[in-house]
């Protein structure tokens, strides 16, 4: 597998938000990062494709998928070093593979296919489509939400990935997710920790304000959990 598509080794818990567009993944990513006082890896494709739309008035093409995958892994590997025991990932390469298959007649670049199979995560949070559809420049096919959801769940099953299904409002999703994640964290030893001091945790939050691509990401500071 190409190095730029490979996960850097680090002893942290990695959780992936997984599911179709407008199903609450980014909202839950932010909430989980706040809950665990850690960082989250945003979806690189959003900025990449928004810039493409702004400059060319073009949406995603299959030639974009490999650069998106490379950008996503660079982002994930960078933020993993700043994570406190757990990294929340708004997407992964398996999700990119599902979009490739569904939007481009089954086409998947072999390098993407290999990386999606090799990279591993501790838990996938499959988000159901019981959230309102929010239209923007990039989202399309709202009438195929159930079909896309089924494709995502099938991918998790076919690739033998550990996952739970999340439905309901934000509070219910957060509660159900953290119940499972807490057990995973408790089962691990010597997880990479940014700091146990509140002062350093406050400094740690500053890293989330700008990613390695110079893009700002909103992050609201919260009190440390007891």
Automatic annotation (TrEMBL):
<dbReference type="InterPro" id="IPR027417">
    <property type="entry name" value="P-loop_NTPase"/>
</dbReference>
<keyword id="KW-0067">ATP-binding</keyword>
<dbReference type="InterPro" id="IPR038727">
    <property type="entry name" value="NadR/Ttd14_AAA_dom"/>
</dbReference>
<protein>
    <submittedName>
        <fullName>ATP-binding protein</fullName>
    </submittedName>
</protein>
<feature type="domain" description="NadR/Ttd14 AAA">
    <location>
        <begin position="14"/>
        <end position="173"/>
    </location>
</feature>
<dbReference type="Pfam" id="PF13521">
    <property type="entry name" value="AAA_28"/>
</dbReference>
<dbReference type="InterPro" id="IPR052735">
    <property type="entry name" value="NAD_biosynth-regulator"/>
</dbReference>
<keyword id="KW-0547">Nucleotide-binding</keyword>
<dbReference type="GO" id="GO:0005524">
    <property type="term" value="F:ATP binding"/>
</dbReference>
